[in-house]
Amino acid sequence: MRFTLRRLRPQARTLAIVPPYAWLVLFFLLPFLLVVKISFSDMEFGIPPYGPLLHFEDEMVRIGLHLRGYILLFTDNLYVATYLSSLKMAAVTTLCCILIGYPMAYCIARANPRYRSLLLLGVILPFWTSLLLRVYAWIGILRNEGLLNQTLMWLGVIDAPLEIYRTDVAVYIGLVYTYLPFFILPLYAHLVKMDLRLLEAAYDLGAKPWRAFLSITLPLSRGGVIAGAMLVFIPTVGEFVIPELLGGANTLMIGRLMWTEFFSNTDWPMAAAVTCVMVLLLLVPLALFQFNQVRQLEERR
Amino acid sequence: MSSLPGFAAAPAREPAQRSDDFLQIIDVAKQYGDTLAVRGVSLGVERNELFALLGSSGCGKSTLLRMLAGFEAVSAGRIVLDGEDITGLPAYQRPVNMMFQSYALFPHMSVEANVAFGLRQEGVARAEIQDRVFAALDLVQMAAYGRRRPHQLSGGQQQRVALARSLVKRPKLLLLDEPMSALDKQIRQKTQIELTRILEQVGVTCIMVTHDQEEAMTMADRLAVMTDGMIVQCDTPHAVYEYPASRFVASFIGSTNLIDGVIVEDEPDHVLLESEALQQRLYLNHGVNEPLGMTVTVSIRPERLSLSRIPPAVPYNWSSAVVSHVAYLGSHTLYQVTVPSGQVLEASLPSLLLAEGAPALGEEVFIHWSADAATVLRT
Lengths: 301, 379
Description:
The complex is a heterodimer. Chain A has helices at about 1-10, 10-40, 70-75, 75-110, 115-125, 130-140, 145-155, 170-190, 195-205, 210-220, 220-235, 240-245, 255-265, 270-300; strands spanning about 55, 60-65. Chain A is mainly alpha-helical. The longest helix of chain A is centred in the N-terminal third of the chain and has 34 residues, at about 75-110. Chain A is built from 14 helices and 2 strands. Chain A is globular and about 85 Å long. In chain A, strands 1-2 form a two-stranded antiparallel ribbon. In chain B, about 20% of the residues lie in helices and about 30% in strands. By secondary structure, chain B is α+β, with helices and mostly antiparallel strands. Chain B has 8 helices and 20 strands. The interface of A and B includes residues 200, 205, 212, 220 and 299 of A.
């Protein structure tokens, strides 16, 4: 009796795997398939503003895939330029986050444990305020008669206000500011659990502190850098709020483009096509990241 | 230091280090806040000597080792190695290499790269690095594993690689931090002998830290027993075991019987003690140079006690006793006997000699020992 009961009980392994998979199917895969479907539909006036893929006519089911959105995407220079510009902005933002975030994460990880949680709190603290409010605050700082320009002019560093607000520079400042914690936290987690005796061993073998950092700390924190860089790069590519509020008219980013297609032009199929291509663009780095994670895990075994 | 039997071997205040020693540790102290982890330790180690710092955890031995490596700043005192004062040198400039307790092999480098790391920092030519790395790995019989990563090796293999890495730079001083603690008990003793052989083969001055007295005695030429940040005795393993200087050393190194007695006769060549615990007086073949009537403690190792059924025909060094516990330990049998005062003494006898007519539980016996078996403890 006991034996049959045990057989009927699902394996613990299955139980552990099902919820995340169900979550992904329900909230990622199904919505995405809907978007893919819309991207192949024809634009129509009405509710919803797109036509069906399947037509039943003369005892025949016709599947009509409308490629207008995709063809436009690859023929109109505006779209290509926007994709490239988005990737460039995401790449520069990621690089800035690495350059600023690595020393910060390193200092926090090596700080006295008593102050460590306080410093970490400082990194997380901005999350307690809405992103929108924080971006508006940046407008107050960066605009021509804003805090920054007034201070610099009062100090006599500059004579005329710097034109930062409504330029790409303002977007970069906003992006780096917003996504820096996403880089610092995973890297910090990596650095803080590093075995410091490895550094002692390096010193003991004659490595000066700088050499020990380059040959021990840096390679061992690679996983943290990659994880942090992905967490910055991926959402930055599709970012909408920051370029919309801080950027100028010629700040090209996919998020803004999607917004325009969706709300201004009410062209759902076009917006959906833009989205699908962007997801594909992001899947490549994600897949690379996953590959790297798996390889590291296997190496450790 | 002399290893002559008797009181003279105890830490008489002769200088702990001489100016011609290869390594001189001079009044070195380490202070953390208000606590003194190491209180003015002085020590001399000769060239190519294998020296052990022995003590329980928190006795300051690891702190002393870390000061020698350069990981901890010295609060007071000096460290002189081969005539050069290295007290203020950072770890990466000292001709000192350490084998870490956890081995601290770099996980992202191959075995070869780990061993080559120290030579690369020195800027040794590529071809020479290759030769020396191979020679070092060959020495520890790991030459076939050069391309592996540390996590692909067993604990014993990792230890060999760590040893090769700490020897490849030909350090003037090699530090071993609890070298056997990460190994299984079965392979420990074999590894101790193997490690000693390798160290003798390359000829390196070596200081090891351990809490395992057996390990220290197996490997070291000389050892220092530390407690509370101080060295309480420093001598050869034989002398420390046979002539412990204090109650602490006597019970820390092996087990022992401690008997209190009052001095009734003190001559340069012998001392006579009156003890309440025993029926007969104790006769020791060395003088103590202390006033008559003073109470001292005597240490007698369990294996130095003998049991017999008839009273010994000498006036000293025996007592009647009742066997209160017998434990067969294979090569030896441990007897606990109760003397008339109620004190329990331990005697360890070779099982082979007891094959016939071994005293049984509750039997009345006589315990006795020779004049050179007992040592007067100073503290």
